[in-house]
Amino acid sequence: MPCGQSRQTVKRSEFAGHAAYGYCAAHSRHFWGFKLYLLCASDGMPIAFELVPANVPEREVVAGMLEGVDLDGYTVIGDKGLSGAAIEELVAALGGAFLRPDRRDEAPRHGNFGGVRQWIEAIFDQLKDQLSLERHGAHTIGGLRARVAQRLLALGACVWHNWEISEPGRSLIAYDH
User: Fold this and answer.
1) Is this model's pTM higher than 0.85 or not?
2) pLDDT tens digit string along 105-130?
3) Residue ranges per structural domain of the chain
């Protein structure tokens, strides 16, 4: 969630004191702003989210987010960045199972999850493009939180409505005209 491109913006923005510099691996660049962490059900229904400064360690954010959710009997799928025993032990202690793609430097355990990763990226793409999450236009921290929540509520309402009309999924095509 980039929030400023120029040095002047960073200095005078109302996000100063809240936002931070971080690295976006998807775009291979550093940015100033926030990172959005999202926990979704398999149909794309948002369950929990955290909006944090871009430099906050992801394992801390994920651990805090997972502790607030009932994981009993569920499987949590994470990315390679969440490798290590700490997250696996936390999810197990909360009653769930944790899966993530194998890294190149470790013995094979779960595989590469190529199709699952594509499905996860499709949810993010829908939030960024169809629901304009990256073009949030917020100027204050309260405005940013409201606009993120607004987009997640829209996605949740869409998923719920599609289930109600027996068209399960998160497709927004019927509402995109």
Assistant:
1) no
2) 878 887 777 777 777 778 888 887 77
3) 2-175
